[in-house]
Recover the amino acids of this structure.
């Protein structure tokens, strides 16, 4: 996969089917109610960044750039309604989100 320009490729986390209720028990969320419009951000795993991607975050006083992100390990918080979703039909059917670098809000884990 070749990524150009300011693009970032992220593998989104699978959506959860269960949610915590008020008293801590798990509540099943049916397919008809899985519209995530109430949520403005989502989490995924960094896959790849284009050569012009401007990803710079300050974590514990240290600057983190695109070169510091580890593919398959670094966790990112990004805007939910952004970019293009591509589902690979080969192998395991992996889903990728191609987005602009400005759509990445934060680095959660390195």
């Amino acid at each position: 996969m070749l990524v150009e320009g300011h693009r970032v490729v992220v593998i989104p986390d699978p959506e959860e089917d269960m949610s915590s209720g008020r008293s801590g028990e798990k509540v099943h969320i049916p397919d008809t109610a899985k519209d995530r419009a109430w949520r403005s951000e989502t989490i995924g795993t960094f896959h790849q960044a284009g050569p012009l991607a401007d990803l710079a975050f300050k974590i514990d006083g240290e600057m983190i750039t695109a070169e510091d992100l580890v593919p398959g390990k670094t966790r990112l918080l990004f805007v939910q309604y952004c970019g293009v979703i591509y589902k690979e039909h080969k192998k395991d059917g992996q889903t990728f989100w191609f987005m602009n670098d400005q759509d990445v809000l934060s680095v959660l884990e390195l």
About this structure: The two ends are 22 Å apart (CA to CA). The chain has a mean pLDDT of 80.
